[in-house]
Write a structure and sequence with these properties.
about 100 residues; mainly alpha; about 55% helix; CCHC-type domain-containing protein; Znf_CCHC_sf
């Protein structure tokens, strides 16, 4: 019994270490460094920030343009636009 639980713990430990290593690689991959040679001036840094923000806003504006309008409400009883079956004034028996 002790050998079995030791084997399970060993396997779980390996899985956790692998997951931890994967997360660590992912964190390191997304890290970017700005310095190039002598570094940036304040104006160059502000320009990069401004360009980055403009790109983000452009994506938001494009997604707002792609939003589709909803269709007008249509009654399922009389098939007229502007109301629903719950508020329909037509008599149900007249359609039989």
């Amino acid at each position: 019994m002790a050998m079995h639980s030791a084997a399970i713990l060993t396997r779980e430990n390996k899985e956790l270490r692998a997951a931890n290593a994967k997360q660590k690689r992912k964190r390191e991959r997304h890290r970017t460094y700005i310095s190039q040679g002598e570094g940036l001036t304040i104006e160059e840094g502000m320009d990069r920030v401004r360009r980055g923000n403009e790109g983000k806003r452009g994506g938001i504006e494009q997604s707002e343009e792609q939003v589709q309008k909803r269709a007008a409400r249509r009654c399922s009883k009389c098939n007229q636009v502007g109301h629903t079956a719950r508020t329909c004034s037509q008599d149900i028996g007249s359609f039989s």
